[in-house]
Specification:
Radius of gyration: 16 Å
Number of domains: 1
Shape: globular
CATH architecture: 3-Layer(aba) Sandwich
CATH class: Alpha Beta
Oligomer: single chain
Order of helices and strands: EHEHEHHEHEHEH
Number of strands: 6
């Protein structure tokens, strides 16, 4: 059985005193998962920072369904401990009619105990998304993910226009957070601009969390 401890891109970043960023996402066709990996690479490009990658299981539209605690492949499913222990959060979802996907919302709705204990208050957070079309609700999906994080007292971070790809991209990329335009068949690869912005977001989030964690 696989361990559900840390799913990190850098196995050398195992020191528990390090600043740790939780990269939490739901992905249906793989694009959001690829963005999560790039954000994690950006996090781990910052000295003293590591990324903990987690996902959430699908939810049943008919009845309550149960999943194994550890998926057959990919990162482990998120727990409340992952949120409690992190120093910062990157939250990602494909768009569903301009909103975050139900599996991610289902998990977030389970975090009331963390809210009651103010466990996320003051921690920096960023959001990212993937859509089929250029105007498929990228920005509203990003904002929908920000709202519960604001209720948790987290410090929302975006992408500044000093990341000049925001000015030149003809694919994804917003000041609200990294985004990707996957195409009608959800198979379009990430563009170079999209990849850069994902890594830049991870790096910015990690630097901020590290400063707050001193």
């Amino acid at each position: 059985m696989r361990s559900a401890a840390i799913f990190s891109l850098n196995p050398n970043n195992s020191d528990q005193t390090m600043t740790e960023i939780l990269v939490l996402y739901y992905s249906r066709y793989g694009a959001t998962a690829e963005m999560a990996q790039l954000i994690a690479r950006g996090v781990e490009s910052v000295a003293g920072c590591s990324a903990r990658i987690r996902t959430v299981p699908p939810v049943s539209t008919v009845c309550e369904a149960s999943e194994d605690d550890i998926p057959a492949e990919g990162p482990p499913y998120a727990s409340l401990d992952d949120l409690n222990e992190c120093n910062g959060l990157a939250l990602g979802s494909p768009t569903r009619f301009g909103n975050m996907a139900a599996p991610l919302k289902y998990f977030i709705d389970s975090t009331s105990s963390l809210w009651l204990g103010a466990k996320l208050t003051g921690k920096p957070a960023a959001v990212f998304t993937s859509t089929s079309s250029m105007h498929g609700g990228q920005e509203t999906t990003l904002i929908s993910m920000m709202l519960p994080l604001l209720h948790h007292g987290m410090l929302i971070m975006g992408l500044p226009y000093s990341e000049t790809e925001l000015l030149t991209t003809h694919t994804g990329g917003t000041p609200y957070g990294p985004s990707h335009t996957a195409g009608a068949d959800s198979k379009r690869p990430l563009s170079e601009e999209e990849k850069h912005l994902c890594m830049a977001m991870g790096k910015r989030l990690a630097k901020t969390a590290a400063s707050l964690n001193q």
